Amino acid sequence: GSMVGVVQRSNRFSELNDDDVKYFQEILGRKNVVQDEDKLSAANVDWMHKYKGASKILLQPCNTDQVSEILKYCNSRNLAVVPQGGNTGLVGGSVPVFDEVIVSLSSMNKIISFDKVSGILVCEAGCILENLMSFLDNEGFIMPLDLGAKGSCQIGGNVSTNAGGLRLVRYGSLHGSVLGVEAVLANGTVLDMLKTLRKDNTGYDLKHLFIGSEGSLGIVTKVSILTPPKLSSVNVALLACKDYSSCQKLLQEAKRKLGEILSAFEFLDSQSMDLVTSHLDGARNPFPDSQHDFYVLIETTGSDESSDKQKLEAFLLGSMENELIADGVLAQDINQASTFWNIREGISEALMKAGAVYKYDLSIPLENLYTVVEEMRSRLGDAANVIGYGHLGDGNLHLNVSVPQYDGKILAQIEPFVYEWTSKHRGSISAEHGMGLMKANEIFYSQSRETVQVMSSIKSLMDPNHILNPYKVLPHSITS
Ligand code: FAD
């Protein structure tokens, strides 16, 4: 069979034939069975243009029954399937590796219900995150998660990757805010776990298996999620720090002094700032006259404009006096606030414009979080631009190596070093992006043999023919 890197197409899977296509057309209608080259090529390649599959068919079910029919059929025919949301995933999980059938959730984008008293939203998996945000905004609520890909990513994809993002420091992970899911198993069985309860200790809480399993255990078709009220006073400040240790101390102070109003604590190094300001139109460094090594974006969200502002200003003043911050700007209006956010959220896009990029998404105990960036820089020298940024409030570093083009020699300098380093410091090699194809074989850097063995048993129980997202998440020896 054909090879992609070290992965080989598993011969347990059948190849798509004309009868399969006819069957899909019967259950979905012709227009929802896509074989058009242009549409297929967009769905075959990931956001970074790093992973490319060769699927010949994309299915667009409109409801849960159709998802169930598709999977039941694929399971009986041994056709491999890749579930696809907004295709913004960063680990090669959302695109086929070979000729898997792509099942897109894009047409399942209805809001089912919203309860204004409890703040519980129930919707289909294909709803785009930003659309849910706008819907909630009108109701006086917000989504408990926010991320740079909001314009394209879908709630089903967010749940399937257990996306973290910019508000986790305040509202916690999706394991807390997702109250229920409806999911379809590989054999077509529909699991209705679409609860709208905060508390429900009735047996094993199986919804958690679908949060973060990246489409390897089932297809998420509906989601119920707890949304916080939209509060009236939001403030954003961009701060400059002279070294990493100041950023760390600033975080400690922010948690203490800002307490319940702290809603984001993000950081970027000067290399990230330079990258954004040189590649994105309209992005400029708010401190153009002096070079700082680190920048921290702090957001507060509360219900009392004057006391929130007072609190934030006192915190900023105190941090200036303690020399934790070298300089700072408090956004004066919503436009300035969004220019600060655009810097932070624009890094991924700027990296894309700069060339090829190797992305690592690490959880590392705070004390050592930035050391790996420095070590990587000294390993690679002038061959690459190494940048570090991320969700410092959650101990999550995005280590990115920007290069003119993908280069095996550079990759060999990065891996396995970065995984070994992370493992040695008791970190996680995937904080929030998942394993996908990229890290499926590296899971042992973060999980024990015994743990992976149980994962493997769960996989076989729920998807005995391993048709769901093959070659992803777990080592290829297990999934192929
Ligand atoms: P896809 O990319 O389509 O799929 C992702 C995975 O989920 C795949 O394995 C796919 O098979 C599976 N999947 C998708 N939908 C379903 C479903 N309905 N049922 C079962 N499986 C499914 N991530 C963060 O955690 N935090 C961030 O701050 C963040 N920022 C980002 C910024 C940018 C600019 C970009 C491009 C990405 C960012 N990401 C971030 C990556 C993140 O994983 C995705 O953006 C998002 O959560 C994926 O949603 P999606 O709908 O695009 O899913």
Task: Describe what this molecule looks like in 3D.
By secondary structure, the protein is α+β, with helices and mostly antiparallel strands. The chain folds into 4 domains: 3-107, 2-Layer Sandwich (Uridine Diphospho-n-acetylenolpyruvylglucosamine Reductase, domain 2), CATH 3.30.43; 111-226, Uridine Diphospho-n-acetylenolpyruvylglucosamine Reductase, domain 3; 233-347, 2-Layer Sandwich (Alpha-Beta Plaits); 355-433, Alpha-Beta Plaits, CATH 3.30.70.2740. The chain has 18 helices and 18 strands. The strands form 4 sheets. A 7-stranded antiparallel beta sheet has the order 15-12-14-13-17-18-16, sandwiched between helices. Strand 17 and strand 18 (396-403) form a beta hairpin. It is globular, with a radius of gyration of 23 Å.
Q: Which features characterize this protein?
A:
single chain, 480 residues, alpha+beta, Uridine Diphospho-n-acetylenolpyruvylglucosamine Reductase, domain 2, Uridine Diphospho-n-acetylenolpyruvylglucosamine Reductase, domain 3, 4 domains, seven-stranded antiparallel sheet, five-stranded antiparallel sheet, 18 strands, 35% helix, binds flavin-adenine dinucleotide
